[in-house]
Amino acid sequence: MSGKKHVSISVCTSIFVILVSTAAYSFSAAVKSSKDYGFTLNALRRIKIMVDNFGDEQMKKNYSDSEALFLDAAEDYYSQKFFGSASKFDKLKRDLISMLVAMGDLYLKRTKEILDSIAKQSIQIIIEYSKDSGLALYLRQPFDPLRDIKLIDPDKYHLFFDRDKIAGNMQEGYKRYEKAKSIFNDPEIALLKQKEKLPMDSINMIITSYIAVVNLCRDAKGNGIEIYKILNTNELGKSMVKYHIIHSNIKPVFDDRIPEKYKIDADDNLRLIHTVELKKLNQK
After folding, report:
1. For residue 128, what pLDDT is reported?
2. What letter would DSSP give residue 110?
3. Would residue 190 count as lying in a domain?
């Protein structure tokens, strides 16, 4: 009799352990799905503007496919099919990493192009437009239009006062670019990407790192664009007259201080869609 009772207790204990384990596993899957849902939704929102502004047709298709996969995974999540949603979210994150690698590379190249395009001129200004330079001496002397040679364009007088801003933006721009490049080429991330299975935290870290690359590039491009604004400061008033703008808070697409080919970068820095902004320009 005692043997049967012992067997009965053992069976009950086993069933209880199985039920507790199943419930715990289900709870764990629910928590993971909830975190995956929030994380991937936020990542998709951040990537969308990148794709809208710089994505080619293939990239836009990839993003559309990722959105569809997210909707499918979200359906499972809301239906409390947490095991089904988990695998879909994992696949989605792998796709997001691929997109962010391509985007990170593109942003790094555009950042270097913008900074390099203005570097030589900026360094020349930092050298020449100093209180210790020969130009400063002529600036302090009275000018006789009949006898003297004009060495300084009046439109460039401001560079004596703005050279430190130019130097600061140059330094900060390249610093941010190098930091972005360092994250992009991080050997630890490269090693993690080669593994077939990764814990959620590792995958999220990779995605977050590549988004950080893009944001650093945006900041660095902003430094380069700010230098263009300083150099072409007199174009601000012309732009306002040209486009009938009555306030100085001018959007990049109307700001002719910024070279035309970099206005898309200036729009992207403000999370504006360049094609939409161009339509506003055409209306003006």
Report:
1. 80
2. H
3. yes
| Average pLDDT rounded to a whole number, residues 179-183 | 98
Span 102-155, pLDDT tens digits = 999 999 999 999 999 999 999 998 888 776 655 555 555 544 454 544 555 656
Q: Is residue 265 domain-resident?
A: no
Question: Which amino acid, one-letter code, is at 33?
Answer: S
Q: Cα(109)–Cα(77) distance, rounded to whole angstroms?
A: 38
In whole angstroms, give the CA distance from residue 118 to residue 177. Answer: 15
Tokens of 180: 């972005």
Name the average pLDDT for the chain.
84
Q: How many domains does the chain have?
A: 1
State if pTM tops 0.85: no
DSSP of 243-281 = TT--SS---GGG-TTS-GGGHHHHHHHTT--HHHHHHHH
Q: Is 1 inside any structural domain?
A: no
Q: Are 228 and 167 in contact (CB under 8 A)?
A: no
- Per the structure, the complete domain to which residue 189 belongs is given by 36-231
Contact 166, 128 (CB under 8 A): no
Q: Quick count: other Cβ atoms within 10 Å of Cβ 86? A: 20
